[in-house]
Design a protein that fits this description.
With 324 residues, this protein is mostly helical. The chain contains 16 helices and two strands. It is globular and about 60 Å long.
Protein backbone atom coordinates (compact mmCIF):
# COMPACT_ATOMS: atom_id res chain seq x y z
CA UNK A 1 0.00 0.00 0.00
CA UNK A 2 1.11 3.54 -0.74
CA UNK A 3 0.46 6.91 0.85
CA UNK A 4 -2.43 9.21 -0.07
CA UNK A 5 0.17 11.72 -1.28
CA UNK A 6 1.61 9.14 -3.68
CA UNK A 7 -1.82 8.30 -5.08
CA UNK A 8 -2.51 12.02 -5.54
CA UNK A 9 0.77 12.33 -7.40
CA UNK A 10 -0.20 9.50 -9.78
CA UNK A 11 -3.50 11.21 -10.54
CA UNK A 12 -1.88 14.62 -11.10
CA UNK A 13 0.73 13.12 -13.43
CA UNK A 14 -1.93 11.22 -15.37
CA UNK A 15 -4.03 14.35 -15.72
CA UNK A 16 -1.10 16.09 -17.42
CA UNK A 17 -1.04 13.44 -20.14
CA UNK A 18 -4.83 13.51 -20.45
CA UNK A 19 -5.17 17.26 -20.96
CA UNK A 20 -3.86 17.32 -24.52
CA UNK A 21 -4.77 20.23 -26.78
CA UNK A 22 -8.01 19.76 -28.69
CA UNK A 23 -10.28 21.91 -30.81
CA UNK A 24 -12.36 23.93 -30.29
CA UNK A 25 -10.31 25.46 -27.51
CA UNK A 26 -13.39 27.22 -26.13
CA UNK A 27 -14.83 23.79 -25.26
CA UNK A 28 -11.70 22.18 -23.85
CA UNK A 29 -9.98 25.09 -22.09
CA UNK A 30 -12.67 25.21 -19.37
CA UNK A 31 -12.19 21.46 -18.85
CA UNK A 32 -8.45 21.91 -18.35
CA UNK A 33 -9.13 24.92 -16.12
CA UNK A 34 -11.51 23.21 -13.68
CA UNK A 35 -9.20 20.19 -13.44
CA UNK A 36 -6.23 22.47 -12.73
CA UNK A 37 -7.89 23.95 -9.65
CA UNK A 38 -6.81 20.88 -7.74
CA UNK A 39 -8.43 19.89 -4.49
CA UNK A 40 -7.59 16.78 -2.49
CA UNK A 41 -8.85 14.43 -5.25
CA UNK A 42 -10.00 12.02 -2.55
CA UNK A 43 -12.48 10.15 -4.75
CA UNK A 44 -9.96 9.03 -7.38
CA UNK A 45 -7.47 8.33 -4.58
CA UNK A 46 -10.02 5.90 -3.16
CA UNK A 47 -10.29 4.14 -6.53
CA UNK A 48 -6.53 3.62 -6.69
CA UNK A 49 -6.29 2.60 -3.04
CA UNK A 50 -9.09 0.06 -3.37
CA UNK A 51 -7.53 -1.54 -6.43
CA UNK A 52 -4.38 -2.16 -4.39
CA UNK A 53 -6.39 -3.31 -1.37
CA UNK A 54 -7.72 -6.12 -3.55
CA UNK A 55 -4.34 -7.04 -4.99
CA UNK A 56 -4.08 -5.11 -8.28
CA UNK A 57 -1.62 -2.41 -9.30
CA UNK A 58 -3.16 1.03 -8.89
CA UNK A 59 -1.85 1.88 -12.37
CA UNK A 60 -4.55 -0.38 -13.86
CA UNK A 61 -7.21 1.70 -12.10
CA UNK A 62 -6.01 5.11 -13.34
CA UNK A 63 -8.62 5.40 -16.10
CA UNK A 64 -11.46 4.52 -13.72
CA UNK A 65 -10.06 6.97 -11.15
CA UNK A 66 -9.84 9.75 -13.74
CA UNK A 67 -13.44 9.04 -14.80
CA UNK A 68 -14.51 9.61 -11.20
CA UNK A 69 -12.57 12.88 -11.06
CA UNK A 70 -14.01 14.08 -14.37
CA UNK A 71 -17.55 13.32 -13.25
CA UNK A 72 -17.04 15.06 -9.91
CA UNK A 73 -15.73 18.20 -11.60
CA UNK A 74 -18.47 18.11 -14.23
CA UNK A 75 -21.00 18.16 -11.39
CA UNK A 76 -19.17 21.08 -9.76
CA UNK A 77 -19.38 23.18 -12.96
CA UNK A 78 -23.12 22.63 -13.18
CA UNK A 79 -23.65 23.09 -9.42
CA UNK A 80 -21.84 26.43 -9.60
CA UNK A 81 -24.11 27.55 -12.43
CA UNK A 82 -27.22 26.56 -10.47
CA UNK A 83 -25.92 28.31 -7.34
CA UNK A 84 -24.66 31.36 -9.28
CA UNK A 85 -21.39 30.84 -7.40
CA UNK A 86 -18.59 33.28 -8.29
CA UNK A 87 -15.71 31.25 -6.83
CA UNK A 88 -14.56 27.64 -6.71
CA UNK A 89 -11.47 26.81 -4.61
CA UNK A 90 -10.72 30.51 -4.45
CA UNK A 91 -10.74 30.99 -8.24
CA UNK A 92 -13.36 32.15 -10.72
CA UNK A 93 -15.96 29.53 -11.54
CA UNK A 94 -16.10 28.32 -15.15
CA UNK A 95 -19.33 30.16 -15.98
CA UNK A 96 -17.89 33.38 -14.53
CA UNK A 97 -14.59 33.08 -16.39
CA UNK A 98 -16.29 32.19 -19.68
CA UNK A 99 -20.10 32.19 -19.72
CA UNK A 100 -23.04 30.02 -18.70
CA UNK A 101 -23.46 28.31 -22.07
CA UNK A 102 -19.78 27.37 -22.19
CA UNK A 103 -20.02 26.03 -18.65
CA UNK A 104 -22.98 23.81 -19.55
CA UNK A 105 -21.38 22.47 -22.72
CA UNK A 106 -17.90 21.91 -21.24
CA UNK A 107 -19.50 20.11 -18.31
CA UNK A 108 -21.44 17.89 -20.72
CA UNK A 109 -18.20 17.11 -22.55
CA UNK A 110 -16.55 16.05 -19.29
CA UNK A 111 -19.34 13.59 -18.59
CA UNK A 112 -18.88 12.00 -22.02
CA UNK A 113 -15.09 11.96 -21.59
CA UNK A 114 -15.55 10.13 -18.30
CA UNK A 115 -17.55 7.37 -19.99
CA UNK A 116 -14.96 7.03 -22.76
CA UNK A 117 -12.24 6.26 -20.19
CA UNK A 118 -13.97 2.96 -19.44
CA UNK A 119 -13.34 1.88 -23.05
CA UNK A 120 -9.73 1.05 -22.12
CA UNK A 121 -10.93 -1.96 -20.09
CA UNK A 122 -11.90 -5.41 -21.35
CA UNK A 123 -15.63 -5.85 -22.14
CA UNK A 124 -16.70 -7.47 -18.85
CA UNK A 125 -14.96 -4.82 -16.73
CA UNK A 126 -16.17 -2.04 -19.04
CA UNK A 127 -19.77 -3.21 -18.68
CA UNK A 128 -19.57 -3.40 -14.89
CA UNK A 129 -17.90 0.01 -14.55
CA UNK A 130 -20.35 1.71 -16.93
CA UNK A 131 -23.37 0.16 -15.20
CA UNK A 132 -22.21 1.37 -11.77
CA UNK A 133 -21.26 4.77 -13.15
CA UNK A 134 -24.66 5.30 -14.79
CA UNK A 135 -26.50 4.33 -11.60
CA UNK A 136 -24.32 6.65 -9.52
CA UNK A 137 -24.54 9.60 -11.93
CA UNK A 138 -28.33 9.45 -11.91
CA UNK A 139 -28.42 9.24 -8.09
CA UNK A 140 -26.16 12.31 -7.84
CA UNK A 141 -28.60 14.21 -10.08
CA UNK A 142 -31.48 13.05 -7.91
CA UNK A 143 -29.64 14.22 -4.80
CA UNK A 144 -29.02 17.63 -6.34
CA UNK A 145 -32.72 17.94 -7.21
CA UNK A 146 -33.72 16.98 -3.66
CA UNK A 147 -31.34 19.64 -2.36
CA UNK A 148 -32.90 22.30 -4.58
CA UNK A 149 -36.42 21.18 -3.68
CA UNK A 150 -35.64 21.45 0.02
CA UNK A 151 -34.83 25.16 -0.36
CA UNK A 152 -38.53 25.86 -0.87
CA UNK A 153 -39.90 23.44 1.71
CA UNK A 154 -40.48 23.93 5.44
CA UNK A 155 -41.41 20.30 6.11
CA UNK A 156 -38.15 18.50 5.25
CA UNK A 157 -37.68 15.45 7.49
CA UNK A 158 -34.41 14.08 8.81
CA UNK A 159 -34.77 10.81 6.81
CA UNK A 160 -35.31 12.88 3.67
CA UNK A 161 -32.21 14.94 4.42
CA UNK A 162 -30.09 11.83 5.01
CA UNK A 163 -31.31 10.40 1.69
CA UNK A 164 -30.38 13.65 -0.04
CA UNK A 165 -26.78 13.66 1.23
CA UNK A 166 -26.48 9.94 0.52
CA UNK A 167 -27.36 10.55 -3.13
CA UNK A 168 -25.69 13.91 -3.63
CA UNK A 169 -22.40 13.06 -1.92
CA UNK A 170 -22.00 9.58 -0.45
CA UNK A 171 -22.87 7.33 -3.40
CA UNK A 172 -19.96 8.73 -5.41
CA UNK A 173 -17.57 7.88 -2.58
CA UNK A 174 -18.93 4.34 -2.47
CA UNK A 175 -18.79 4.03 -6.26
CA UNK A 176 -15.21 5.32 -6.40
CA UNK A 177 -14.16 2.49 -4.09
CA UNK A 178 -16.25 -0.14 -5.86
CA UNK A 179 -14.67 0.84 -9.18
CA UNK A 180 -11.26 0.00 -7.77
CA UNK A 181 -12.66 -3.34 -6.64
CA UNK A 182 -14.16 -3.96 -10.11
CA UNK A 183 -10.82 -3.28 -11.82
CA UNK A 184 -9.15 -5.66 -9.33
CA UNK A 185 -11.78 -8.33 -10.19
CA UNK A 186 -12.47 -9.26 -6.60
CA UNK A 187 -15.66 -11.21 -5.78
CA UNK A 188 -19.11 -9.60 -5.67
CA UNK A 189 -19.31 -9.75 -1.88
CA UNK A 190 -16.14 -7.71 -1.48
CA UNK A 191 -17.36 -5.26 -4.15
CA UNK A 192 -20.66 -4.72 -2.34
CA UNK A 193 -19.07 -4.39 1.09
CA UNK A 194 -16.43 -1.88 0.00
CA UNK A 195 -19.24 0.17 -1.55
CA UNK A 196 -21.07 0.20 1.79
CA UNK A 197 -17.85 1.21 3.56
CA UNK A 198 -17.40 4.19 1.23
CA UNK A 199 -21.06 5.22 1.27
CA UNK A 200 -21.31 5.24 5.08
CA UNK A 201 -18.02 7.13 5.36
CA UNK A 202 -19.36 9.61 2.78
CA UNK A 203 -22.50 10.27 4.83
CA UNK A 204 -20.41 10.75 7.98
CA UNK A 205 -18.12 13.13 6.09
CA UNK A 206 -21.03 15.26 4.84
CA UNK A 207 -22.63 15.41 8.29
CA UNK A 208 -19.29 16.50 9.67
CA UNK A 209 -19.12 19.14 6.94
CA UNK A 210 -22.50 20.43 8.14
CA UNK A 211 -21.21 20.57 11.70
CA UNK A 212 -17.91 22.23 10.82
CA UNK A 213 -19.69 24.83 8.70
CA UNK A 214 -21.17 26.15 11.94
CA UNK A 215 -18.54 25.25 14.51
CA UNK A 216 -15.30 24.78 12.56
CA UNK A 217 -12.08 26.70 12.93
CA UNK A 218 -11.99 29.31 10.12
CA UNK A 219 -8.22 28.82 9.76
CA UNK A 220 -8.45 25.06 9.17
CA UNK A 221 -11.93 24.40 7.75
CA UNK A 222 -11.14 25.86 4.33
CA UNK A 223 -14.47 27.62 3.88
CA UNK A 224 -16.26 30.53 5.52
CA UNK A 225 -17.68 29.34 8.83
CA UNK A 226 -21.43 30.02 9.00
CA UNK A 227 -21.93 29.88 5.23
CA UNK A 228 -24.85 27.45 5.48
CA UNK A 229 -26.52 29.69 8.06
CA UNK A 230 -26.10 32.77 5.86
CA UNK A 231 -27.61 30.88 2.91
CA UNK A 232 -30.49 29.52 5.06
CA UNK A 233 -29.59 25.92 4.23
CA UNK A 234 -31.67 23.40 6.17
CA UNK A 235 -28.83 21.12 7.26
CA UNK A 236 -28.94 18.24 9.74
CA UNK A 237 -28.12 20.74 12.51
CA UNK A 238 -31.09 22.92 11.59
CA UNK A 239 -33.53 20.01 11.30
CA UNK A 240 -32.44 18.58 14.66
CA UNK A 241 -32.72 22.00 16.29
CA UNK A 242 -36.28 22.38 14.99
CA UNK A 243 -37.13 18.89 16.24
CA UNK A 244 -35.64 19.44 19.70
CA UNK A 245 -36.53 23.10 20.40
CA UNK A 246 -39.44 24.61 22.29
CA UNK A 247 -42.03 26.47 20.22
CA UNK A 248 -40.56 29.90 20.95
CA UNK A 249 -37.07 28.80 19.87
CA UNK A 250 -38.47 27.10 16.78
CA UNK A 251 -40.15 30.35 15.84
CA UNK A 252 -36.95 32.34 16.29
CA UNK A 253 -34.92 29.84 14.28
CA UNK A 254 -37.43 29.84 11.43
CA UNK A 255 -37.45 33.64 11.46
CA UNK A 256 -33.66 33.80 11.28
CA UNK A 257 -33.74 31.40 8.31
CA UNK A 258 -36.18 33.68 6.50
CA UNK A 259 -34.03 36.81 6.52
CA UNK A 260 -30.82 37.90 4.78
CA UNK A 261 -29.32 40.73 6.85
CA UNK A 262 -26.38 42.75 5.58
CA UNK A 263 -24.50 42.18 8.84
CA UNK A 264 -24.67 38.42 9.41
CA UNK A 265 -22.75 38.26 12.71
CA UNK A 266 -25.81 38.36 14.98
CA UNK A 267 -27.68 35.82 12.86
CA UNK A 268 -24.79 33.35 12.85
CA UNK A 269 -24.12 33.66 16.58
CA UNK A 270 -27.79 33.33 17.54
CA UNK A 271 -28.36 30.29 15.32
CA UNK A 272 -25.23 28.59 16.64
CA UNK A 273 -26.42 29.17 20.20
CA UNK A 274 -29.79 27.61 19.34
CA UNK A 275 -27.99 24.64 17.80
CA UNK A 276 -26.12 24.14 21.08
CA UNK A 277 -28.93 24.81 23.55
CA UNK A 278 -31.39 22.56 21.70
CA UNK A 279 -28.98 19.63 21.73
CA UNK A 280 -28.75 19.61 17.93
CA UNK A 281 -24.98 20.13 17.92
CA UNK A 282 -24.40 17.13 20.18
CA UNK A 283 -26.92 15.02 18.25
CA UNK A 284 -25.07 15.78 15.02
CA UNK A 285 -21.76 14.67 16.50
CA UNK A 286 -23.45 11.45 17.64
CA UNK A 287 -24.79 10.79 14.15
CA UNK A 288 -21.35 11.42 12.63
CA UNK A 289 -19.95 8.76 14.96
CA UNK A 290 -22.79 6.36 14.14
CA UNK A 291 -22.10 6.46 10.41
CA UNK A 292 -18.34 6.27 10.93
CA UNK A 293 -18.85 3.19 13.12
CA UNK A 294 -21.14 1.68 10.44
CA UNK A 295 -18.35 2.11 7.92
CA UNK A 296 -15.79 0.47 10.20
CA UNK A 297 -18.12 -2.45 10.96
CA UNK A 298 -18.12 -3.30 7.26
CA UNK A 299 -14.35 -3.84 7.42
CA UNK A 300 -14.94 -7.03 9.41
CA UNK A 301 -16.85 -8.51 6.45
CA UNK A 302 -14.10 -7.90 3.87
CA UNK A 303 -11.96 -10.88 2.90
CA UNK A 304 -8.63 -9.05 2.99
CA UNK A 305 -5.66 -9.15 5.35
CA UNK A 306 -5.79 -7.45 8.74
CA UNK A 307 -3.02 -5.11 7.57
CA UNK A 308 -5.20 -3.87 4.72
CA UNK A 309 -8.18 -3.48 7.03
CA UNK A 310 -5.95 -1.32 9.23
CA UNK A 311 -5.03 0.84 6.23
CA UNK A 312 -8.72 1.46 5.46
CA UNK A 313 -9.51 2.15 9.11
CA UNK A 314 -6.64 4.64 9.40
CA UNK A 315 -7.72 6.38 6.19
CA UNK A 316 -11.24 6.71 7.54
CA UNK A 317 -10.00 8.14 10.81
CA UNK A 318 -7.77 10.65 9.02
CA UNK A 319 -10.67 11.67 6.78
CA UNK A 320 -12.92 12.29 9.78
CA UNK A 321 -10.23 13.87 11.97
CA UNK A 322 -10.70 17.43 10.76
CA UNK A 323 -10.06 20.29 13.13
CA UNK A 324 -13.09 21.92 14.73
Amino acid sequence: MQSVTQYQSYISDYLKTFKNAKEPQTLYEPVAYILSLGGKRLRPVLTLMTAEIFGTSCQRALDAALAVELFHNFSLIHDDIMDAAPLRRGKQTVHEKWNTNTGILSGDAMLIMAYRLFETYEPETFHELAKLFSKTALEVCEGQQYDMDFENRDDVTIPEYLKMIEYKTAVLVGAAMQMGAIVAKTDSENKNHIYQFGKNLGIAFQLQDDYLDAFGNPETFGKRVGGDIIENKKTYLYLKAIAFSKAIDQQELKHLYSINPTDTTHKINTVKQLFISSGAAEATKTEIKNYTDKAFEVLDTLRISDDKKTVLRQFGKQLMDRNV
